[in-house]
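Fold it.
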Amino acid sequence: MTDPNPRLRADGVTLAYDERVVVQDLDLAPVDGGITAIIGPNGCGKSTLLRALGRLLRPRAGQVLLDGKHIDRMRSRDVAKVLGVLPQAPVAPEGLTVADLVARGRHPHQSWIQQWSAGDEDHVAEALAWTGMLEHAHRPLDELSGGQRQRAWISMALAQGTDVLLLDEPTTYLDLTHSLEVLDLVDTLHEERGRTVVMVLHDLNLAARYADLLVVMNEGRVVASGDPRQVLTEDLLHEVFGLRATIVPDPVSDAPLVVPIGRRHVHAHLGTAGAARPAAVVG
């Protein structure tokens, strides 16, 4: 599934904060023009890896390559023209309007020679229209719902005009309706605009439904990677997340659907599934 020469890749990266190693000797090649979702338990290094892919954290060892170049040796402006990063729960100055936020996405394309232009206006208007935020352009961000704010931030990344988009927990603090709204937008971006998207998600079922490539991390390493239908197994969920679960087909898509099994229902599940599958259940 992975491209032998992807636009963005991590080769043997080790990431650390001071002396604390968080990611160890990790390789990752997101699928070009598709959605790569990274899942794993809290503290496994997902967000740290995304920071390194976005040039926000320099690897202790190994390298991150963007279009075949060492991303740490590239000019910040050149990186920002190709790669956009949306951190978890981004914060904007109080009173900033949606239009002002989205306009900031054009900064990498400007200089003291090339100032704000009609072309920049067009990019901003197009980004707002794409995300359904045109009617909210002059509203302050702090007046919007969670889903609207996320769409505004994605609008900024679209206005930036990048081919690669990194999203760290884009559905954090959102209810299910707004989570689907944001992920449907991301899905449209890659299908109709050919964007390469790498996102960290905590919801296993949403990750399985939207991902072309599902990457599972644990303790700073990739433990599984591939098609969600092959990657998500009961044994893996138990090993990585300590989760008792059964896997069934998603009735809406062809993705796997994770059905957690609480302690109260373990024995009932064993009775229906048979005692031949103890690996997925402990207790």
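Residues 176-193 form the longest helix (18 residues).
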